[in-house]
Structure formats: structure tokens, C-alpha cells
């Protein structure tokens, strides 16, 4: 049986920003996302992981249609998002919804909760007023809030309650795909677990496709089916979560895993340390972007960007050294 087509695809997607410039000075080019290929399957949770500055938020905004790619494109349900007509763009906005990082800034402070949750329904003229108000109460209940919260304004709510409101608004139009950009990073640790459990429970219950953007690999194991690791605008490793976490093939993925706090006592195995900090996307290194920090870097890494190598079913990574080791084992 042929595999079903992905719900969303990105192909050769790049996004640049022009910074500064003037009459006597050329603008600098910030390479936020570079040549990304990505498939998002229906009903799955795909985690995008990387440090601040890796390009994951910019990629997420391109997937949402909030930013136009500089090159390449995004396809949703087989349709090119960038060339869609007005009806197609409207349908896309209805079927793809965001949950943003900071519930303190993503909600309009002047609006009561009911208006915030109802606003997507109003914009798309879904049902009459009575039906919309009933839907608002239903949505609040689904995220663990009550009807009395409908009259509250954001400043009267806790951070966790605000993020529940944002989730309710994202679900209002019954979308097929949600892009959640660091949805718990602005919350207290105790509240983070509650919101993660809520998002995961709703994803399973509603059969949603979810892109979950995070810098925390410790979270990925519990929420995602697949993971894509980004570094300086490029995806350097991707695959099923169990395969990537158990057998990371890119040195950067290994470094992220090493940084995850471990509850068990005792010494860790000694590994070569990753050096320095992520370079500026205004001046990315030649060759493999990770080579200035990589403990395994060889001369080839400094000159040539590595291609993706398959290390298992659906598990790929871009590293000259691990690809050579893999090839030697298979010889």
C-alpha cells in the first residue's frame, strides 16, 4: 500500500532578511533558514529542535504563511501556499493555526477571553452569534477553563490560564495543523507540564497534526513522533524520535542530548566537548556550519557542506565523519 501524501511539505525553503544598509552601505544578509526540506505527515507530532538563533521560529512562521520564503516554498495538502488564490489562502488560514510562545503578549489586553476565543469564528463567519457563544464555552471547557473565565481579561489570569486561552482560540476553527512555537517556555516549571499534557491530550483526541518548536530535547521524547534538529538555519538531523535520541548521528544532536539534565547519579561517559557559541547568521561559516564548534571536524568539513545520509528508515543526518563511519561499516 502506498504511503499517504504528507499534509505539509517544505522544499528547498530559504528565508533571508536584509539588515541595515543605506546610500553608501550595502545591507547585510541574515541567513535565517537555508535550503530546508521537510515533510509533515497527517496526524503526527513533529518537533523542531535547536538553540536560539537556529532558525526554527522563522521556519515555523514560513510554514504558517506569516513569512514568504526567499527561495523554495511550502505546500499544504498538495497546494503551493505562495501561489494560492484568495480562496485558497483563506482556506489555508482556517486549516493552519498558531500557538505563540508568550501568552503575555499574544493576547489583546483590551479584550475579554470570550472575544479572543470567538474572534476566529467571527472572522470566518462561522455560525450565528448564539452558536459562536456556545462554541466559546465548549472550547474553554476543553482547555480546562470555565464559563466564568469568558468575562476575564488577560491581566486577571495566570500565565497558564492565558496559554489555555491561546490554545482555545487556535482550536476554534477546528484546524488540521497547529504550529506551536515554544508554547511553554514562558511559563513556570509546574505549569509547563500541565500545558504540555493538555496539548498532547488534545492532539490525540482531535487527531491534529502538530509542529512543536522547542529548544528542549528533554520534552521531545514525551510529545513527538518525529524530530528535526536545526542548526544555523539548516536541518542537520531528522527521524523518528526513538531512533534519533537512542542513536544520534550528528555531533550537534549529541551535544544537545548531553546538555539535558540527567536524574540518575554517577559519572557520565566522557565525550569531546562542543566549543563556543552558535555563529551569527549574518556570517555563517563555510562548509558545514557546525565545524567551528565540532570536536570531530576534519578539513573537508571546513570547505564542503555535507549532504544528508540515511542511517535508518526515515533517519537522516548531514555529517561527513559519521557518514564515512557508516559507509565503512556497510562495506
Please describe what this structure looks like:
- By secondary structure, the protein is α/β, with parallel strands linked by helices.
- Helix 5 (about 160-170) packs parallel to helix 6 (about 190-205).
- About 30% of the residues lie in helices and about 20% in strands.
- The longest helix is centred in the middle third of the chain and has 18 residues, at about 190-205.
- It is built from ten helices and twelve strands.
Mean pLDDT: 92
Order of helices and strands: EEEHEEHEHHHEHEHEEHHEEH
Estimated radius of gyration: 21 Å
- Percent of residues in helices: 25-40%
For the sheet with most strands, the description reads:
8 strands, mixed
Oligomer: single chain
Within the largest sheet, what's the order of strands? 6-7-8-3-9-10-12-11
What is the general shape?
globular
Strand portion, in percent?
15-25%
Specify the number of helices. Answer: 10
Q: Helix/strand/pairing class, anyone?
A: alpha/beta
How many beta-strand runs?
12
Q: Compute the separation of the termini in Å.
A: 32 Å
Low-confidence stretches: none
Amino acid at each position: 500500500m502506498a504511503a499517504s501524501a504528507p499534509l505539509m511539505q517544505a522544499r528547498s525553503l530559504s528565508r533571508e532578511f536584509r539588515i541595515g544598509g543605506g546610500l553608501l552601505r550595502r545591507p547585510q544578509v541574515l541567513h535565517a533558514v537555508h535550503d530546508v526540506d521537510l515533510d509533515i505527515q497527517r496526524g503526527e507530532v513533529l518537533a523542531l529542535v535547536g538553540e536560539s538563533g537556529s532558525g526554527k521560529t522563522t521556519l515555523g512562521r514560513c510554514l504558517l504563511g506569516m513569512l514568504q520564503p526567499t527561495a523554495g516554498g511550502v505546500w499544504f495538502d498538495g497546494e503551493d501556499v505562495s501561489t494560492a488564490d484568495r480562496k485558497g489562502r483563506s482556506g489555508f488560514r482556517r486549516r493552519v493555526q498558531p500557538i505563540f510562545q508568550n501568552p503575555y503578549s499574544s493576547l489583546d489586553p483590551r479584550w475579554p477571553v470570550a472575544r479572543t476565543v470567538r474572534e476566529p469564528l467571527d472572522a470566518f463567519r462561522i455560525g450565528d452569534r448564539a452558536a459562536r457563544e456556545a462554541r466559546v464555552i465548549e472550547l474553554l471547557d476543553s482547555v480546562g477553563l470555565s464559563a466564568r473565565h469568558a468575562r476575564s481579561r488577560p491581566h486577571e489570569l495566570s500565565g497558564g490560564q492565558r496559554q489555555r486561552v491561546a490554545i482555545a482560540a487556535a482550536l476554534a476553527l477546528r484546524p488540521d495543523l497547529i504550529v506551536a512555537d515554544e508554547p511553554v517556555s514562558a511559563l513556570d516549571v509546574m505549569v509547563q507540564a500541565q500545558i504540555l499534557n493538555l496539548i498532547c491530550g488534545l492532539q490525540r483526541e482531535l487527531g491534529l497534526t502538530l509542529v512543536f518548536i522547542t529548544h528542549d530535547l528533554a520534552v521531545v521524547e514525551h510529545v513527538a513522533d518525529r524530530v528535526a534538529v536545526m542548526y544555523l538555519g539548516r536541518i542537520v538531523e531528522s527521524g523518528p524520535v526513538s531512533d534519533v535520541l537512542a542513536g544520534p548521528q550528528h555531533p550537534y544532536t549529541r551535544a544537545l542530548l548531553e546538555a539535558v539534565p540527567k536524574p540518575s547519579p554517577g559519572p557520565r561517559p566522557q565525550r569531546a566537548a562542543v566549543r563556543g557559541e552558535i555563529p551569527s547568521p549574518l556570517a555563517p561559516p563555510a562548509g558545514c556550519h557546525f565545524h567551528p564548534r565540532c570536536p570531530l571536524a576534519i578539513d573537508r568539513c571546513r570547505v564542503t557542506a555535507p549532504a544528508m545520509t540515511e542511517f535508518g528508515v526515515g533517519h537522516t543526518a548531514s555529517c561527513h565523519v559519521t557518514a564515512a563511519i557508516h559507509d565503512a561499516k556497510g562495506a
